[in-house]
Each structure stands twice: as structure tokens, then as C-alpha cells.
Design brief:
Elements: E1 6-11, H1 19-30, E2 35-40, H2 48-58, E3 67-71, E4 82-86, E5 91-95, H3 101-109, E6 115-118, H4 134-147, E7 158-159, E8 171-173, E9 176-184, E10 190-195, E11 206-209, E12 212-215, E13 229-233, E14 238-243, H5 248-252, E15 259-263
Parallel strand pairs: 1-2, 1-3, 3-5
Antiparallel strand pairs: 4-5, 4-6, 6-7, 8-9, 9-10, 9-15, 10-14, 11-12, 11-15, 13-14
Helix pairs in contact: 1-4
Length: 265
């Protein structure tokens, strides 16, 4: 698989200060034919786990050979490494801080080839590197050069490890599952680490979160009344909890990490 000229961007920069724009400027300066997709720039500042989750929900919908550039980097300027990770489907350019945890988990679960390159060749960086803006000076030019067809080994040596964080596990008992809120989206919907496949053996389920019990699953938001708390299967197959025309986060006082229990027959 060869990289394409398609590059996605995921950052915690927001759009106020021009940081996203200047990264695009660096990419286009090196490869004017590149195509750039903004995946998200609204990751909460320094929230590595949030960026990892958002990336995990969407990267597989892009064509093979897409380059996914991720800059959520509270350790910028430290000894943390900069990496290219190549899977059977895509290329990822990111700091070595756990932001690729789900990507690596998916590849290893599929027993797919995984190549991890420590970006150490300054030939592919900008000439002057700021210790506080590697997104502009290292990651963006590396992604651009990669999109031009520079072979992955040219960027540095292959390594065998990278930083990951433990993924929350679903606890299984007779007629019962326990998971947790893994992400809260901008609508205040609670996305869990329990998936549709986990529910296949249960009937007449009830979902419990923050002392609220929800009977059954709704198919769409329109199945409930305004202000009603519903459980449903989100577009990426996660069990989710929402308030119709409202915010489950605000109504329930929910946070990432809250326990979610499913009981059934």
C-alpha cells in the first residue's frame, strides 16, 4: 500500500489562533496537490484519550493509503518521540503519547502488519524547529513528504514499541454487562465502550447510568419524547445514552469514566 495525497487533521488547536491554517500552509507548500480533510480541531486541550477515541471512530471510513495526522501533544519539546505508524489500511503521523492506542489495538486484534517508525531524520522537518510547535515544524512536513511518496523507512528507524494506555474493558456476568462512558460528544450524548455485538446474547435489556434506568433501546432520537433519556446504538456501533433534544451530560451530570450497566435476560 502506498500513501495517497489525502491527509486528515486531528488537533486540539481550535480555529481561533491560526495554528491549523499554518499547518495546512506547510503541507501545501511541499505538496500543492495534497487534499486535506479536517477531522476535528475541537478536541479538548491536552485530552489524548479523547483524540484517540475520535480518531478510532472515523479513520476506517477513509480510502486505503490515507495519511492521518494527529497533533494533541502536551509533551511537545520533551523526550517523547514523533512517529509514523503504518497499518494495513492507513498511515498515522503523531506524537508517541497514546493517541494511537485504538489504532494499534485494532491492528493487533486483526493480526495485521504494523510498522512503527521513529521520525528522526531532520531532512523532512522544517529548517527551524520550534520546541513548542512540532505540529507545524515536524508533523506537517513529514505528512506532506509522505504524501509525495517518500518511503516510510527514509524518515527514521523502525522500532518495536510505542506508548499506549489501557483500554477500558467490559465486565461480563450472567445476564449483565458493565462498561463505562468512553466519550461525550458535543450534543452531550454518552458513548460507551459497550458495542452492539456485546448485547447480542441479551433480551429485554435495561441500561443503567448515573442512577437512571432506561428500558430497551430506541432506534432513533425521534423514538423518544422531548426531554426523555434514551439508550440507542450510535453510528459507530457503540451503546449510547442521549436526552431527546437535550444533553445527557447536563441532565445526568455524567462524566467520562462513569459506570454503565446493562442487564437483560
Amino acid at each position: 500500500m502506498k500513501p495517497t495525497g489525502l491527509i486528515t487533521l486531528t488537533t486540539d488547536f481550535g480555529m481561533q489562533d491560526g495554528n491549523v491554517g499554518v499547518m495546512k500552509g506547510v503541507i501545501y507548500g511541499l505538496n500543492p496537490q495534497a487534499r486535506i480533510v479536517d477531522l476535528s480541531h475541537d478536541i479538548e486541550p491536552q485530552k489524548i484519550a479523547q483524540a484517540a477515541f475520535v480518531l478510532s471512530r472515523h479513520y476506517r471510513y477513509f480510502p486505503a493509503g490515507t495519511i492521518h495526522l494527529v497533533v494533541v501533544d502536551p509533551g511537545v519539546g520533551s523526550e517523547r518521540r514523533a512517529l509514523i505508524v503504518q497499518t494495513a489500511q492507513a498511515f498515522f503521523v503523531a506524537p508517541d503519547n497514546g493517541v494511537l492506542t485504538y489504532v494499534v489495538h485494532d491492528a493487533r486484534r486483526a493480526s495485521a502488519d504494523l510498522h512503527i517508525i521513529d521520525i528522526s531524520n531532520p531532512r523532512f522537518w522544517l529548517q527551524d524547529v520550534s520546541p513548542v510547535f512540532h505540529g507545524r515544524d515536524i508533523f506537517a512536513p513529514v505528512a506532506a513528504h509522505l504524501s509525495l511518496g517518500i518511503p516510510v523507512p527514509a524518515f527514521g528507524k523502525e522500532v518495536n514499541d510505542l506508548v499506549t494506555f489501557p483500554l477500558p474493558q467490559v465486565e461480563r456476568g450472567e445476564g449483565k454487562l458493565k462498561g463505562q462512558v468512553a466519550h461525550i460528544d458535543r450534543f452531550g450524548n454518552l458513548l460507551t465502550n459497550i458495542y452492539r455485538r456485546d448485547l447480542l446474547s441479551l433480551r429485554e435489556i435495561k441500561v443503567r447510568v448515573r442512577n437512571r434506568e432506561i428500558a430497551g433501546l430506541s432506534r432513533t432520537y425521534a423514538d423518544g419524547r422531548e426531554g426523555e433519556v434514551i439508550a440507542y446504538i450510535d453510528s459507530s456501533e457503540e451503546l449510547a445514552v442521549a436526552v431527546v433534544l437535550g444533553s445527557a451530560r447536563d441532565l445526568l451530570g455524567a462524566q467520562v469514566g462513569d459506570e454503565v450497566e446493562v442487564v437483560g435476560q
